[in-house]
Structures are given as structure tokens and as C-alpha cells.
Amino acid sequence: MLDLAIIGGGPAGLTAGLYATRGGLENVVMYEKGMPGGQITQSSEVENYPGITEVVTGMELMQDWPKQCMRFGLKHDMAEVVRVSRPEGPCFKVELADGNVISAKSVIVATGSTPKRAGFKGEDDFFGRGVSTCATCDGFFYRDKEVAVIGGGDTALEEALFLANICSKVYLVHRRDEFRAAPSTVKRVEENEKIELVLNAVPEEVYGDAMGVQGLKVKKKDSGQIIDLPVPGIFVFVGNVVNNGVLKQEDGSFLCEVNDWGEIVVDLAMKTSEEGLFAAGDVRVLAPKQVVCAAGDGANAAIGAIAYVEHLKREKLC
């Protein structure tokens, strides 16, 4: 039986594993079906992580985390968790996609979130053929070409700046007339000659042929005017969907409380409404969606898990 099962291998899950094992828990396994690192590994630039004095890519930021976090005994199992439940007693049942079932005294869910689709016509049809949610992954294919970025938050603006270093022009399409990003980022975007702002506009339709995207039609919200942007690449950054599926029970309910958006409700110690179950990172309510915050969540959750497991052992409950 595991002392702790950690589901997710991004900054929150890795930090939870570091603190839990260094804090004395034994048999701690982090379940991550891919390589550890999380969604931040797709980011083109990170300049606001404490102690990092140069701008680095997300991959560069995360490259040493797994080695550090496994120094004290954390194990990484490249397996997919399909459900966490608590059928009876104090212990949790962790079901894997391969059919194996693991028992754990405590669980930390750090499954993060997935980029949303904007919902315009043709988006799904051309996804992977000109429509992307990762500028780092696909920006190279549009070197010296024009592209469009959809969104108005920090990620959208940061990726627009990244693409401006590669592409001849970047159209930044946003449904409002002001941005939700950090003021310093907005200023850099506004001062970049290669970025053209298309504000108060929403994407209507992406069009193309068998070879891929040929352009994007956007509609001005105030006038209804349709603007045709002849771009071969479109990058969508309009938020994320919470990856809470592992907590969904067979009857459709959730193991713990979630809000209307599916975010896991936690207190300041990352405790959920289910005793012994913790949530950390982008999957929890009011997550700032920043690496440093996810790491702090992971540390908090691990400290709580240590105290909970020690309580179980003292009371001989599990």
C-alpha cells in the first residue's frame, strides 16, 4: 500500500513528491503517463520564476526538476490513472488504465488543465493542419510568414511576442478592447511593430484546403464587419479545461466538492472536502496558473498529506 499517490507530474506534482519523500513518507508514487514537466514545458519564455535571472523556455526551466524531486525516493510510474475512489474504510482506491488497482493512504491530484478551443467554424477540422495551441511546438513552421493569435491573457500575449521573433507579422485577435495580461507584457506587445492588434473582434471561420489553413475570417463586434486575415497559421490561447476526470465516480458524481467550472474546491492547505485527498496546481479553484504557485500548492498539499498519514498510523486506521 502506498503512503501517497500523486496524480500528475507537472510543477505541483513534482514538488509534492519532493516534499512528501523528504518529509518522511515512504512508498510515494507519482503517476504521469508522459514525461514529467507539465504544460509549462510548451511555453516559449519564462522570466518570472524566482531565482531564474535569464529568460528561459519552459522546457529549460523544468529539465532538472524530476532529478531533484526523485532524490529522496519519489517513484515515477508512467501509467494513466482513470479513477480515484474510496469504496470503504479510510484508504483510497487508485484505478489504472491497464486494469491494475492500487491502494493509497492519501492522494494528491495535480492533473492540471488543458487548453480550450475557441469554438469557431473549422477549428477542429484544421487542428494540427494550421490551427495550434502551442507556439513553441509549431511556430517554426511559419517562419517569415503571417500568423494570427487568438486570446487576450498573459499566455496569448507572450506567445504573440514569441511568434513575432519568427514570423513576418502577427495579428492578435481579442474580443475586448483591452487585455487581461500583465501591464508590462501589454506594453511590449503594443510596442512591437510586427504585432497588429485586432480588437473587439471574434473569430468566425478558418478556411483552407487539403494542404491546410489559408486564412481566418474575424468579425468586428461593434460594426459586424468581416475581416479576412490571409494567414496559414492560427494559434489559440483562450483558457483551459480543468482535468478533473480522475475524481468522477461511476454514478457521475465527484469524489469531492467541485465548483460550477469543475475546479476542485480546496482550503488554504489544499485540502478537499474528502479527508486525505488534496488538490494542487491548475486543477484547483482560483488557481493563478503560474508555475511558482503550482509548486507552492504541491508543497502545501504534501505537508498536509504527511500529517494525515501520520495520523492514520498513530490511530492504526490504515
Number of helices: 7
Terminal CA distance: 9 Å
Total beta-strand segments: 17
Bin the helical content.
10-25%
Task: Give the percentage of residues in beta strands.
Answer: 25-35%
Overall pLDDT confidence: 95
The succession of helices and strands, N to C, reads EHEHHEEEEEEHEHEHEEEEEEEH
Q: What characterizes the major β-sheet?
A: 7 strands, mixed
**Structural class determined from secondary elements:** alpha/beta
Low-confidence stretches: none
CA radius of gyration: 22 Å
Shape: elongated
Explain what you see.
This protein is α/β, with parallel strands linked by helices. Helix content is 22%, strand content 27%. The chain contains 7 helices and 17 strands. It has helices spanning 11-22, 58-62, 65-69, 135-138, 154-164, 183-191, 291-315; strands at residues 2-7, 28-31, 75-77, 81-85, 92-96, 101-109, 113-115, 131-132, 146-150, 169-174, 195-199, 201-209, 212-220, 226-229, 233-236, 240-242, 277-279. Strands 1, 2, 3, 4, 5, 6 and 17 form a 7-stranded mixed β-sheet that branches. Strands 8-15-9-10-11 form a 5-stranded parallel β-sheet, with helices on one face. A 3-stranded antiparallel β-sheet has the order 12-13-14, with no helix packed on it. Helix 1 (11-22) links the parallel strand 1 (2-7) and strand 2 (28-31). Helix 1 (11-22) packs parallel to helix 7 (291-315) and helix 5 (154-164) packs parallel to helix 6. The longest helix is centred in the last third of the chain and has 25 residues, at 291-315. The termini are close together. The mean pLDDT is 95.
